[in-house]
Amino acid sequence: xxxxxxxxxxxWLILLSVCLPGxxxxxxxxxxxxxxxxxxxxxxDKPGPLVLIDSAHHNFxxxxxxxxxxxxxxxxxxxxxxxxxxxxxxKGLAKTDILVIANALNPRNARNWNLPNFPAFTRAExxxxxxxxxxxxxxxxxxxxxxxxxxxxxxxxxxxxQFLNAYVEVRGQREQYFDTxxxxxxDHPITRGVSxxxxxxRVRGFMGQAFLIPPQARPLMSFTQPxxxxxxxxxWVFDEDTPIIPVTGWHQAATLEFGKxxxxxxGEAGMFTxxxxxxxxxxxxxxxxxxxxEQNEQFLINSLLWLAKKL
Length: 311
What we know:
The protein is α+β, with helices and mostly antiparallel strands. The chain contains seven helices and 18 strands. Strand 15 (about 250-260) and strand 16 (about 260-265) form a beta hairpin. The longest helix has 12 residues, at about 125-135. Keywords: Signal.
């Protein structure tokens, strides 16, 4: 199947105009004015779970950059958040409750997102993380659109997830939502929350990828409306020869209980941070404080509470 660039919805065209290679890094800025709405400490009687956010793998989203708002939300909920800047080792993860890996990259793709894309982790690191989860650790693995699925694909496959190195689109939709009414947001401890006022019924995504899940995993966000994935050879370059495949019924978030541990996988990173996108003199909000994303913050908190085994 093929598509033409003119078939892309307006939201895509806006993003393409500012996200071309070279411009992307300058234009996609963290919104440091963001402040969490949450005022509840979920661990008032003891130190909260230790969350390490990976920065050792050329991560596009990390604690001292685009995931500062992510860390603010977690801190507001009582989690202890720290940076992890070294390769994954048994000793380095020994006292960690939750490991967050967001948009890791191989060094060869750090500034060049075009094909070929390469794995971000060594086999030794993958085996360390696998064993750590099996013995009780919790992993939050986030891999957005191309080239991130390829970078994290080997790690995901070890837990049974099949990533697609592509860009996903819900056909005919200029904005991407998942809600419980339409089935795109599943009934799950994460959506139910710790109480009815902490339940989540609708979240907003910002493109990303679609993936397949193993039989024992639980869907969390699914493409229930007609959806397709674009697979260009060059980052953000789409034309009449760009391959596409249908991904209706695929997923953008899912969870897995594995051994004594837990895994939460997400195919989109922007929904969990706050960014601004420059378009000339205009600023477009993306993520936690964007219109329609009012429940994304609670969704993030609930996801971490599930990983902390509090849900």
